[in-house]
Amino acid sequence: MLMKRCLLKSIFLLAACVMVMDAAAQLIKAPTNTKTGTDSKKKTGTKPQVKFRDDNEEKKEGAFAYLVLKASKSSAINVSINESEAGKIKAGMSKRVPLNNTDEMRISLSDGQGTQYDTSFVVQDKDAGRNIVIAFPEVDYTPVKDDQLHQEKLEELRRIKEAQEALKQQHIASLNEAEGRIRDWIKQIFNDKTALQTLIIKIRKGESGITDQVLKSRDLFLNDKNQLASLVKNYSDSAVAFTMKDERDRFLKEIKIDLDKITRDESYRFIDAVQAGKAPLSDNIEIALKASRSSDIGFFIRKDSLEEAIIGGKRIIDYALDVKSDTTVFRYLFEHGVGVNNYGGRFAENKEIYATPLAHACINADTDVIKLFIEKGARFFPATMSRIEKKKQLKVLLTKFGSRSEVMALLKANNYDVDDGTVALSSALQELDSSMVLVEGGQFTMGCTNEVGVSCSTREKPAIAVTVDSFYISKYELTQHIWAAIMEDDNPSFFKDCPNCPVEMISWKAANDFIERLNKLSNKKFRLPTEAEWEYAARGGKLEDKSYYYAGSRDANEVAWYKDNANKTSPVGGKKPNPLGLYDMSGNVSEWCSDYYAEDYFSHSTRVNPIGPELSAQKVLRGGSFMQSSWSSRISNREGHELDFSNNATGFRLAMSK
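^ thats the sequence. predicted structure below, dont judge the formating
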């Protein structure tokens, strides 16, 4: 209502301004308080008899001119003519007084509010046929025409219409401005909505939580949404007040789709539901576990189903380990009945290796999770796993977390066995290196020599002169503990629990498999000795005593374990060494050489660095064993066996080219 009143007042003021400005261009302000005979040339005559005549009355016949008195639209005026009260003219009305030539007029006008206007004039010849208009407080001389007042009214109406049109245009401009603001606000709200929905999507994907930024974004969207509703209501009310309902309906129809999208969007309620505990943050259980949202688990899985394989064939604890959930998830699982030692899994790249939940947690390297698992009594290996299997597991597992000192410290502090054999391996490699003896090359008689010829077999004949280059050979037969250190705790020996006894039950193939692995670990080129190298070393090389039947003595009991003094293998180095410092070249276990075996090989052997026949079904064994007589322990004795032959008296010692 107030707005309507303001609008009407604006129309009237504008029309009045237009009239005043137009009148100012036509009215001649009369001199104030003019005395008769001084302000204009006066013609003598009698004072007129004043009588008001309404503007719409017929023009008085014979009147020389007319005096037209106009009151302003804002107030009535009191009129005094020739010092006599002439009457009162209502606001916005006018009166006419007929005049004769030479009439002297003294006019006094008052609005009753203290505003007084006095003027005087004498009707002259030049005034014939005119209206002398006094529009309080100004005088206008205009020609007298029959339709003058009618035209003035039309002009006034035209001005009023112009003022009304101008006001209408102002209203239209005002509405257009409001429409622009509403459109801008809609764009802003869509931006706010997009920003909020982006944050909500991130929350549901597990990339974020309900942070202060999220809450501020929600509040901004809601505030802007309320502000838009207020703007639209004010716009609608203004349009009605301006009688511009059609314009309002057109605009509201244009923005209806956008308004509906905004007003109907309640995605923000997701945040309220989460805060009230009525909805999960995540879209699904997998996202909940990836984002470590323990509070979401109950929305997706019943507590009595937590140990079922429900996520891609995996149980929750396994999946939580795969995606590296934090302690909140695992604590929730343990509190709801999931066992800390349940399940686990094998590696895709190595199906033989199994990781318990604790081992998997160590790979993830979250020390808080590891501490929680240890607190709950987690095992690092399955209870049924053998020691050899544990070592095999551990070697692979340590490649995945062994470099993390904080993880290793936690396991060791809680008495978990994390010895993967690295220490034993390093010790074994050092022991092998230190045991290698340099044998300087030279020439010797290989086979049955004259000194021992009476007790030789045909396979040792004929004796031949052979030259060999310098090489290295191990001081000892390969022991069980070195074999186990290289072969991941495997020990094929029949006589176990004797780490320093020679490893036995070794075929020629097994010996070469060991050497292949050893060379990869040590980055060296160990090998089996050739038959010629073995015999040259057993004789003592350049230090040979040709009277010796055995490696280092004529008495087997000094240097050899054989069937008369042993019924099983003995620790290496327990007897006297030969001149090169080599032990057990006679007895204890028979030792494989690299050569193929041929009984008559000496008859056609090469004489420089011989390597045996090109091909045979057997490989050479030398030195005799604890199972055989002292005769088999002689330096020149030689045997042949298939490549896969083994028993509890077959072993080997290592050699290496210089």
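The first helix runs from residue 2 to 26.
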